[in-house]
Amino acid sequence: MSTTTNDTTPRHENPNAAEPLGAQADVDVLRAALDGPWRDLRERVRRELPADAITGTPGESIDVQRERVTRQVLALADMGYGSIGFPTEHGGTLDYGASCVAFEMQAFGDLSLLIKLGVQFGLFGGALARLGTERHLSAYLPDIMSGRLMGCFAMTEIGHGSNVAEVETTATYDVETDEIVIHSPTVSATKTYIGNAAKDGKAAVVFAQLVVPQVGDVPDGEEESGEHGVHALFVRIRDDEGNPMPGVTIGDNGAKGGLPGVDNGTIAFDHVRVPRENLLDKFGGIDETGAYVSEIDNVNRRFFTMLGTLVRGRVCVGGGSGSAAQKALAIAIRYGDQRRQFAAPGEEQEIVVLDYLAHQRKLLPRLAKSYALRFAQNAMTSRLQELEDAAKSAEGGTPGPDHEDAQRELESWVAGMKAQTTWHALDTIQACREACGGAGYMAVNGLTQMRADVDVFATFEGDNTVLMQLVAKGLLTEYRDSWGDLDIAGMIARVASQTVEGLVENTLKRAGLQKLIDGATPRNDETALDSRGWQESMFSERASHLLETAAMRLRKAGKDNGFEVFNNAQDHILAAAKADIDLRVFEAFQDGLEAMEDGPARDLMAKVFDLYALSSIEEDKGWFLEHGRLSVARSKAVTTRINSLCGELRPRAVMLTEAFGIPEGWLENDLIDLGQDRAGVTR
Amino acid sequence: MSTTTNDTTPRHENPNAAEPLGAQADVDVLRAALDGPWRDLRERVRRELPADAITGTPGESIDVQRERVTRQVLALADMGYGSIGFPTEHGGTLDYGASCVAFEMQAFGDLSLLIKLGVQFGLFGGALARLGTERHLSAYLPDIMSGRLMGCFAMTEIGHGSNVAEVETTATYDVETDEIVIHSPTVSATKTYIGNAAKDGKAAVVFAQLVVPQVGDVPDGEEESGEHGVHALFVRIRDDEGNPMPGVTIGDNGAKGGLPGVDNGTIAFDHVRVPRENLLDKFGGIDETGAYVSEIDNVNRRFFTMLGTLVRGRVCVGGGSGSAAQKALAIAIRYGDQRRQFAAPGEEQEIVVLDYLAHQRKLLPRLAKSYALRFAQNAMTSRLQELEDAAKSAEGGTPGPDHEDAQRELESWVAGMKAQTTWHALDTIQACREACGGAGYMAVNGLTQMRADVDVFATFEGDNTVLMQLVAKGLLTEYRDSWGDLDIAGMIARVASQTVEGLVENTLKRAGLQKLIDGATPRNDETALDSRGWQESMFSERASHLLETAAMRLRKAGKDNGFEVFNNAQDHILAAAKADIDLRVFEAFQDGLEAMEDGPARDLMAKVFDLYALSSIEEDKGWFLEHGRLSVARSKAVTTRINSLCGELRPRAVMLTEAFGIPEGWLENDLIDLGQDRAGVTR
């Protein structure tokens, strides 16, 4: 069937619904709450992008898909989507956060297109804009934003994906010719999985170990070797005719698990020379005397500062995967709301599958989590923008150490959200596929390509497990900073008192003295399960307990057993990181809910929040029971309440997906045309 | 790199291993244990099938893949793989169980090929052989086994996938012409997702509602309507030139989420006439007077008997997905054993990623579960063969009611195993993909295509959730049969006593009177975690408790609230079904272990078993804590022990995957050639 493009009118009038649904007005209120601070941009995208600008046809060959995606990228650039978030003085439009929101909206379309847009305008253009200086921006940004200059972000190598500080490509300054020589000394130094490399890229921002033979003063400790760590350089990789530049070898990664429209490839350099000016030298450069200069003394700190400015990539990847999950839910819930299978004994008509508890259980908690993650994504994007604004208005243009702390803190949050949201998306799209049965497996219905595309989101822009490790590292550092002045004995006492408290609580409760405890600790069993305060205490106490006990374990690490102690506690550390991100998501949902005006939409949102909070608790009920945070009776009550919430939300499930505001035309699937799916429809 | 085809020599000499590995002899012993009763056939397949007979090239177009798969099917038929499991009097070879084992082995190759083989020889050929009678077998089997007659299994319709008893296609006997008229009265009656339909199928076994206008005596209750329920018919769908037969409309399902080499399509019938003899009439037919005759009186029972004879399809799908999971583990564990990333502080060389606990945690419990499922699969296949043999040797050729009970019981087991193994495979292949990072996403490395192909295994040959429901139904029926003579009060008393026992145990334990309890119940905290008896009690008590309490809840169901009571308990019922399958898997592993001779291989196997058992317990620790089966201390001890088992098994991880015996040449991936992946290898 074909639907009118960009019709976002809710279609929640559902003949199968057990009770009347919320009004159109309620959908609008929900949508506004979910849209968050960049609502205008979201509405503009919904209104202005026709389906053919944003969607693809699954099943076409790689060549056809690549051509289509390139065409769409250029068309979107023509519509101004290439310039969002770039500095206005160089022709950029809107603000930095807006570029993340545009990405989220584009993620409702074809994900090959999304990633190609991300490579061109986010990674390639973004790295140039944030690591380069005035001369780079004025020379290249206009052509990048228009798509006339397509380029790559050449960081990952065969030998180093996660540990990019150890890439092997070298960039050696040749003082004689005032050039820098880019070289791949080994096979494993080959850049790989690089988007835009196989077909379209004319240039690349190449990350390489910068070596500057010793001239004049250089930062401490770096004099001897002349090695200044990883830096980025602008390098032409193809000439105007599309042939590789001399010394550049380009390969094609070929077929991948997904993203068929993205031309990922390999790039190797054989002593390729570029002018000194091609070094993107915002954080470290080579002056006219051939000396290395940087305001940041430490090699590692310098590199992580550079990476930190590129944090937007992870914000986008997380947000994009969140959109994909929302789209999958919109498809599967609509299907489940129409598809019938098996009649109850004595009944003529078969049952709508979303009326089955097991089906609700598959879809509705994931829907609730999608709401939660959207609020968290909005909060994170706002924070990104705040820090951006603060940096811009900082005196002398250089933000102080507080800003740097805030930046590190944001990076940690972003890392964790990227990991949690991409995993959520994979899990959700798969559940949606299965919930649609064979129809879900047909490429035309959009779910399988989406699942295949999102797969790699879990490992690119940072491997999820490594990112969660990063979150943990941030937490532990912060923890050490706060508690550093406590001696070990004090620390033990503190943690022990916590543990003893838990133990007593636990023991008494299990001993049947429930009421006694309940009187003393109103936050527990007698508090309603929908008490936000109780829910919050569950999330926050888990986070702090896991962090404190992880820190305790790591204190045992000495010089000789450092890796062993760390490694033995790795599951614990990762759990602490996850608990922290879960708490942040909870808080963001709470803020989002509180910002809503009283009314039926807010009441509905509160139920979605309950479902999110209780499902999260149930998922980890083993931990809560182990740590005396849940009594046995209450643990079972949580499950019972989730089931009843599923029943309560079920009649509003379609409406809740309409609040995502995905234009009908973009839901390129046959599932919407359910007529043929109903038994008995005459041919 | 290219490896010698069919070199299954273990390559476990690993320079990174922390301790010496088991001898080649141990790998052989493990492999023999895993190979089970059809070891000879497995060894024959390993020896005789070259890689190009069994593997494909990912990323090729659908047309190219379909052609390749068709070619491979015919070549395998030439080698005799089409005749395995068919009746020997019609040219079949080996036994019925062997056909399942051949399928499992072929699942180490390309899965499009696997499914095409399954459609042709298992579904199409199998349905004809088991639902047809002598005249059908002698007329068609030779051509089916040779691949000269390609065909379809046309059961699923647009409107009915799970509830196939309600397919809408009709097969109406026309007494005037002695023909049967096949017709699709509605759009939703169109057969869909049918393998072999889009390109190769010349015929189909079509499932349709049989209507025989009233002539003579017919079974009770069916006289009025002449409707005898779903039957299967042999129908030509294409002529020898490949054109659709008159009245047959064939469509192409086109691109799917995976299985690109399988030509799934749609078939609709417009009053297509076939001779009466085309009715596959083993369980119900039309005699020469035009009267319907069947030895089975009840319409439903008749249809479920027919479906029951087709249980092999589910055995195969489960087994095939299990093989895919094993292959994914072989790839990811080998990669993890070589790939290095991040150096410990002060170290020069980076750490092998499988040395990280988090990486072990991702892969080793899934490896252990793969072992468990293989033993269960072997046991199930043996049981299938036993019942087959029993049926054949039954007096008068008709097995008695005991056999029928055994058959129902097998079907339930098969349903549950199919669901659990396919879900395990999806989860495992995904974890393996992520564990290989970007390399895992490259199609050439085999993981993504495998993941995409296996996806549909979760919903075809029975939707997994529906299958688990079937397991539950079987359990509850059996339970009712055993306890049917108890009155409700007796039942309540029994369950209540269980509950009280749990409660007391729970309360006392949590109250710190651990030792008192432990003295009384040696099975608990003081029993070693590797006590097989304790582990078994955990699996079996969970299964019986969940079943008993589910049965209690369903007793409340009356005529008016039947669906509601059932639906509210659906999550509970599904948990009971899963617990039952988990117990069966545990028991199969136990039997498999016990059959091994004492020695290092058996000791190693016992550790793998511990890891499987404890990981399963940990996964559901919330339930065990809730039900007083785990104390808090013991729950934490389980986690600690899993971590230490991961460390103990890690040096043997590669060897444990070698025990699967996947020929090197079939592991069509670059991951094996790890040279380029190592940093510093000179170009």
Question: What does it look like?
Answer:
2 copies of one chain form a homodimer. Among the domains of chain A are: 151-298, Beta Barrel (Butyryl-CoA Dehydrogenase, subunit A, domain 2), CATH 2.40.110; 485-658, Butyryl-CoA Dehydrogenase, subunit A, domain 3 (Up-down Bundle), CATH 1.20.140. In chain A, 54% of the residues lie in helices and 8% in strands. The first copy, chain A, has helices at 24-35, 39-48, 51-54, 62-78, 96-106, 111-131, 134-146, 299-309, 312-336, 357-393, 401-435, 437-441, 447-455, 464-483, 488-510, 514-520, 532-555, 562-568, 570-594, 600-619, 621-626, 632-649, 653-658; strands at residues 151-154, 170-174, 179-183, 191-194, 203-211, 227-236, 248-252, 265-269, 272-275, 285-286, 292-293. In chain A, strands 1, 2, 3, 5, 6 and 9 form a 6-stranded mixed beta sheet that branches. In chain A, helix 10 (357-393) runs antiparallel to helix 11, helix 10 (357-393) crosses helix 22 (632-649) and helix 15 (488-510) crosses helix 16 (514-520). Chain A is globular. In chain A, 53% of the residues are buried. Residues 1-5, 9-20, 485-489 and 494-523 of chain A have low confidence and may be disordered. At the A-B interface, helix 10, helix 11, helix 12, helix 13 and helix 14 of A face helix 10, helix 11, helix 12, helix 13 and helix 14 of B. Chains A, B: GO terms for molecular function: acyl-CoA oxidase activity; FAD binding; fatty acid binding. Chains A, B: Residues 538-665 form the Acyl-CoA oxidase C-terminal domain. Chains A, B: Residues 66-147 form the Acyl-CoA dehydrogenase/oxidase N-terminal domain. Chains A, B: InterPro entries: ACOX_C_alpha1, Acyl-CoA_Oxase/DH_mid-dom, Acyl-CoA_Oxase/DH_mid-dom_sf, Acyl-CoA_oxidase, Acyl-CoA_oxidase_C, AcylCo_DH-like_C, AcylCoA_DH/ox_N, AcylCoA_DH/ox_N_sf.
